[in-house]
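Reviewer comment 2.1 asked that we show a complete input and output for one of the modelled complexes. We chose the iron/sulfur cluster case, as it is the one discussed in the main text.
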Amino acid sequence: MAATDTLLNVEDLRKTFGAQGGLFTRQRKAVHAVDGVSFTLRAGETLGLVGESGSGKSTLGRLILRLIDPTSGSVRLDGQEITTLKPAAVRAMRSDIQMVFQDPYGSLDPRMSIGATLAEPLKVHGLYNADSPALIRDIMLRVGLNPDHASRYPHQFSGGQRQRIGIARALTLNPKILVLDEPVSALDVSIQAQIINLLKKLQRERNLSYLFIAHDLAVVRHVSDRVAVMYLGKIVELADRDALYTRPAHPYTESLLSAVPHPDPYDDRANKPAIAIGEIGSATQLPSGCRFHPRCFRARMLAEGGARADIAHDPAGIAVPARCANEDPPLRAHGTGAVACHFPDTAVLHRMPLTSLNRDH
Ligand code: SF4
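Response of the prediction step:
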């Protein structure tokens, strides 16, 4: 896929929410949901965004659409800054960036027919005219819906068909970018494949750019050109898809890949778990230094190996390199992308063979 022109440029984007401190205190703690995120999205490409629940990936999607306002940072669409736009200009901008939600039923008004649902964005933007019914019929056909069913209501459609309606609605304004927030995770596996193939077809036809947010690494592998991995509000690794899946440089990426079943259980790589220790931390109390260090098997391995003279101790009293405990690693260029780790060349696991990366099956 040719993808060279930068369409979206996100720089040092931050979103901090205030959260109640606890039952017996009025003190509010800051939740650093998105904490200094930078990336670009090119015309016609899919950037996969992965991470556990609580990593900030859905908040990032909402910031890009200005569904919520950032605390600081920049988002430029085609060179235009959108974080400072007034409400009327935000509405106009949304014709270029649309969102598809995880729960298609929850995002559709049960009292509106599908025809009315698809006409609504055009009416909100003052674009509904005599040609619109034909446009709506055409979009229904393109997403695999029968245009004669435009008078039906959401409950008369299956889950997969409802997600097709969600995609059709996002396309009515002819956007350049779709933010797809877990678009197939609520669907059966067989339906997932149909929706993914539909998204790929629409991307080819319309040169759409996708920000594809998901926790399922197998799905992200199938659709993405590049992949960004988020941990506690920060991108910790961003690379071309094949490089990331075969040569992960960040231990958190290794952990996520390690959790994906290996196609050959007798392959040595299948028997090398690289599991993050414990659960994702709290965005109200970010660890010192590298935010991943309390869970990082690599840091422990490096300290145990005695290869590093400077040793500190993590919150559980486990020895880790002092740099891991004290210095927040910036996202630095590495291989085909970038990684936020002081020791990126000590990966222990190459989990996914290239042969399993055929995108066209
Ligand atoms: Fe692990 Fe240290 Fe790298 Fe952080 S900087 S990911 S703690 S090895």
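Residues 250-251, 290, 292-293, 296, 298-299, 324, 329, 341-343 surround iron/sulfur cluster (CB under 6 Å). We note this here for comparison with the apo prediction described in Section 3.2.
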